[in-house]
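Intended use. Records like the one below are meant for learning the mapping from a protein sequence to its folded structure. Do not use them to infer anything beyond what is encoded.
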Amino acid sequence: MNKKLGLIAIAAAFTLPAWSADDHKGHDHDEKAGEHAHDAKPAHGGVVSVVKDVNYELVAKADSLALHVADHGKPVDLKGASAKLTLLSGTAKSEATLAPNGDRLEAKGKFPAGPGTKVVAVVTRPGSGPASVRFTLK
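Structure written out for the chain above:
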C-alpha cells in the first residue's frame, strides 16, 4: 500500500509542472478568465498591437499620429519616451517622429493614414530597450 501511495505521489509531482506551465507571470485576468492583453480592444479608436504584454494603440489621422501605451490596462509614463514610425502605403513611404504629449506620443503633419497602410513603430522608453511594433490601419 505504501509503495502505491509513493508511486502516486511521484506521478503527481511530475504532472504538476504541466498543469502550472501557463503561469502568466503573476498577473490576473480581471473579470474574464483566460483573457489576455492580446485580446485588447482599442480605447481611443485606433488599432492595437501587443508586444511583451504592453498594449500599443495607434490612432492615425491624415494630420496627426498618436500612440497610446498601456501595461495591463494602466497608462505607461511616457516622459522621456519617443517613437519613430515608418508608414508604407502602396509604393509611398513616409516617416514620423513622435514625442510625448500628455498621455501619448504624438506627431502633427500630413500622413498617409488610409486603410491598409502598414506602420512599423520603434518605441524607446527610458529604462527599457526599444520595442518594434507593427500595425495595419483599418
